[in-house]
Amino acid sequence: MAKLLSANCRVSRFLQTFRSCPARGFSSVSLKGRSCLTLKDFTSEEIKKMLWVSADLKHRIKHENEYLPLLRGKSLAMIFEKRSTRTRMSTETGFALLGGHPCFLTTQDIHMGVNENNKDTAQVLSGLCDIILARVYCHSTLEELDKEASIPIINGLSDLYHPIQILADFLTLQEHYGSLNGLTVSWIGDGNNVLHSFMMAAAKMGIHLKIATPKGYEPEESVLQDAQRLSKQHGTQLFLTSDPMEAARDSNVLVTDTWVSMGQEDEKKKRLNDFRGYQITMQTGSVAKPDWTFLHCLPRKMEEVDDQVFYSSRSLVFPEAENRKWTIMGLMVSLLTDYNPKIPMIKF
């Protein structure tokens, strides 16, 4: 009974985030035919439309048990140079749930980059499927695929950006807080691809961003310059420091990620030493706002966040992981169709 009541409360909270909110012209925003390599390329209205579609699909499929074959007859090529749990499962099951046919392809399954160049692969797949999601080492691979393909390309992760993770984070925070506008998010960790994606989108959603990285692990300078411009344009705060406690102070959300990404295994010993003092604990949260929560894109290691925070009621990591599915579904529907949500516009 307790579990049932808890589930009902979550559904009620979810409904409250979009009830009685007018669409305000967002129905006219179309993303059909676009690619998504970085959220830098999208306006605040376009990102909000993605999230609105995602919330709509989640409500109608999960809570109303509707069957929505919006992608029936369409096929998806999933190119994975890197292994994955959440990206693979969310994309593969989500595309199938919408009536489409996903094809999972590793470097052992196709010739891309070995016996066939990226240009030829992009043109071949453009004639065989409707959309490509690629999880790659180098962002330039995605840019080449996008240049040569005649179908949308989605960045499933690259060394520079991880946009689909940020969409899931935004939906999770919107569900929890009821709105994104005015939140302060503190990133405590490496200046990596996930952080870069936060920096390309936070200001557009009215989110203040505080960043703590060890010296030598700051975000890319070009990304920082873009983020500073966006922050000024949208009237939000962007703050950088090397002190984790300074970044956490008065924050609503504490976020971290792995300190040793795939391909950096040789640097592990040095990185663990350089990131000493960056583990997120309840002490870190003690200087944050009373309603602070925690996010991590997973997989997580103990040195990044301790069990007391990770498994606490403040941790949103598992709803965040589930929302990877609803937001990738929302993104794919947005890029492939002119679908407009049936629920009222969610609050931002």
From TrEMBL:
Keywords: Amino-acid biosynthesis, Arginine biosynthesis, Mitochondrion, Transferase, Transit peptide, Urea cycle. Residues 182-334 form the Aspartate/ornithine carbamoyltransferase Asp/Orn-binding domain. PROSITE patterns: CARBAMOYLTRANSFERASE (PS00097). GO terms for cellular component: mitochondrial matrix. GO terms for molecular function: amino acid binding; ornithine carbamoyltransferase activity. Pathway: Nitrogen metabolism; urea cycle; L-citrulline from L-ornithine and carbamoyl phosphate: step 1/1. It is an enzyme of class 2 (transferase). It holds the Pfam family OTCace. One of its GO terms (biological process) is urea cycle. Its EC number is 2.1.3.3. The keyword Signal does not apply. Its main location: mitochondrion. The keyword Transit peptide applies. Residues 34-175 form the Aspartate/ornithine carbamoyltransferase carbamoyl-P binding domain. InterPro entries: Asp/Orn_carbamoyltranf_P-bd, Asp/Orn_carbamoylTrfase, Asp/Orn_carbamoylTrfase_sf, Asp_carbamoyltransf_Asp/Orn-bd, Orn/put_carbamltrans. It is found in: Mitochondrion matrix. PANTHER family: ORNITHINE CARBAMOYLTRANSFERASE, MITOCHONDRIAL, ORNITHINE TRANSCARBAMYLASE, MITOCHONDRIAL. Belongs to the aspartate/ornithine carbamoyltransferase superfamily. OTCase family. NCBIfam families: orni_carb_tr, PRK00779.1. Homotrimer. This is ornithine carbamoyltransferase.
